[in-house]
Amino acid sequence: MEETAQELTDHVSQFQKYLDEHTPELISFGIKVVLSIVVLYIGSRLIRWVLGLVRRSLGRTGMDKGAVQFLCSFLKALLYILLIFGIGMNFGIKESSVAALLGTAGVTIGLALQGGLSNLAGGVMLLIFKPFQVGDYIIVDKANGWEGTVYKIEICYTTLLSVDYRHIVIPNGTLSGNTVVNLTARDMRKLELKIGISYDSDMHKAKQILEQIIKDDKGTREDQGMLVYVDELAESAVTLGLRVWVPTEDYWTVRWRLNETIKDEFDRQGIRIPYRQLDVHLIS
Q1: What is the 3-state secondary structure (H, E, C) of 152-190?
Q2: Per-residue pLDDT for 173 more than 90?
Q3: pTM (2 decimals)?
Q4: Mean pLDDT, residues 7-34
Q5: What's the half-sphere exposure (Cβ side, CA atoms, 13 Å) at 151?
Q6: CATH topology of domain 188-268
Q7: Domains 14-112 and 123-182 fall in the same CATH topology
C-alpha cells in the first residue's frame, strides 16, 4: 500500500515538473490554437465576401452564369487552401515543408481520385465549349431520368432541376464524355404531331382542318413553314402528321393546346379518331 502511494506521489511530482518546465510552451501553443480558430473564422467570412464581390463583378460584365459559378467554385477552393497554408505557418511549419506536404498530398489524392480529376477536366471543357448554359433544358439519359433545367455548373458537378423539382447532380466528366441534347439552344423549335383517323373519315377534310388549326393558333410561326401530310396507312387508322415551328419557351403550351383543339374540332366535324378495341364473337 505504501509502495502504491509512493508511486502515485512520484507520478504527480513528475507531472508537476513537466508542467513547470513546459508551461510557456503550452501557453504559446494554446494561444496559437485560439488565434488559428479566430483566423479560420475571419478568413471564412472574408472568403465569402470576396466570392460575393467577384460574383457580382463578373455578373455585371455579362459573363455566362455557368462560367461565373465555375470560376467562383475554383476560387473558393484556392482561397481555402491558402487559408489553411497560412494557419499551418502560424504553428511554425516552414513554407517549404507545407509546399512539399501539399505536393505529396496532391499526388496521392490525384492517384486516388482520378475520377474527380476527370470531372474537373470535364468542367473546364464545358466552360470552354459551352454545349449548354445555366437555364437551358438538357437531356443526358432519358431512360434514367437525367434531364432538366441546368441549375448550376460547379468545378466537378453540374446540377439539373427536373420538372418535378428534383435536383439531379451529374459529374462533369459524364457530361463532357456523353451525348447531351440541348432542347433550348435555339429560339425556335419544330413541333411534330401524329394523329390517327379512321379509314371511314374524310382524309382530305381532316387535312384541311389541321391546316386551319395550326394557321389560326397564336403560338405557331407561319413564316417558318407549316406542313400537314399523310404519314402512314396503318392497320386501323390513317396516320396524319403535322410539322410547325414554335418559340422554344412556348413549345409545350402550344403542343397541349393543339392536341385539345384538334380533338374538339374533329369531334365537331365528324372526323373519328380510332382507338384500340377487341371484338369477341361467341359461337354457340
Answers
A1: EECCCEEEEECCCCCEEEEEHHHHHHCCCEECCCCCEEE
A2: no
A3: 0.59
A4: 65
A5: 15
A6: Alpha-Beta Plaits (3.30.70)
A7: no
pLDDT of residue 9 exceeding 70, the answer is no
CATH class, domain 14-112, is mainly alpha
Q: How many CA atoms lie within 13 A of 260 on its CB side?
A: 7
Instruction: Let me know how many helices (H) and strands (E) the chain has, helices first.
Output: 7, 8
User: How do the domains of the chain map onto residue ranges?
Assistant: 14-112, 123-182, 188-268
- Cell 434531364, located at residue: 147
Sign of CA dihedral 195, 201, 202, 203: positive
**271 φ/ψ angles, rounded to the nearest 5 degrees:** -90, 120
Q: Which residue has the cell 384541311?
A: 208
Give 262's Cβ-side CA count (13 Å radius): 25
pLDDT tens string 234-263? 988 999 999 999 999 999 999 999 999 999
Mean pLDDT confidence for 108-136? 72
CATH number of 123-182: 2.30.30.60
**Using CA atoms, how far apart are residues 69 and 219, in angstroms rounded to an integer?**
34
